[in-house]
Amino acid sequence: MNKTNTKDIKEDIINTAMPNIAFDGLNWEMICNSAEQAGYSKNTAESVFIHKMKDVLQTISEITDKNMLEALEAINPDDLPIRQRIKIALLERFKYLSQHRDALTQSMQYWIIPSNKPRAARIVWQSADTIWSWAGDTSKDYNHYTKRILLSGIITATTLYLLNNKECSDADLEDFIDRRIENVMTINKFTSRFKK
User: Which of 133, 104, 183 is CA-nearest to residue 175?
Assistant: First the structure.
């Protein structure tokens, strides 16, 4: 059944498109064909993805975050230390992405183009903010921004690790995330001492 909410329409089209990426590539023509496959017209893709592929890739990231949050529904973050909350959220996010490597690979090829990097940075920031919000962060001072900058770095590094290590197991991914979090905590402790 066709939806009327723009966000729902975007998700319908992208969820239909995801299995097609391995065969047809991540491109505008494939998105338009996937819109038809999902029961919409090709014109619908143009009306909801105003900036075309930039909006398509942002929607893929938003769907990834949505799936991450759904996987976290059974977990009460208040029962866990902050470090564990962030780790679990990252693991769920990248478990989803590991099932969609073709989309991840082609998304990265698009975002590494210099003119696209500012939009890419905003999208990664949005994911970092989603994770920190789930983890219960309510800071409003410079810590709000520092936490999201550092987590954005972990998200980017883990994305590259996943792309460069196609055979990595869940345990490998967890070990990598543990190391990145440890590095960030070391940097954060040094910065805190420096400010004092």
Answer: 183
CATH architecture for the domain at 53-195? Orthogonal Bundle (1.10)
Burial 109-147 (b: 16+ CB within 10 A, else e): ebbeeeeeeebbeebbbbbbbbbbebbebeeeeeeeeeb
* Token pair for 192: 């805190």
CB 112 within 8 Å of CB 97: no
The helix or strand, by DSSP H or E, that contains position 144, with its residue range, turns out to be: helix 142-164
Identify which of 175, 64, 51, 182 has the alpha carbon closest to the alpha carbon of residue 130. Answer: 64
Which two tokens mark 139? 């800071």
In the chain, domain spans:
1-50, 53-195
Q: Express each pLDDT in 11-62 by its tens digit.
A: 999 999 999 999 999 999 999 999 999 999 889 999 999 999 999 999 999 9
Residues in the chain: 196
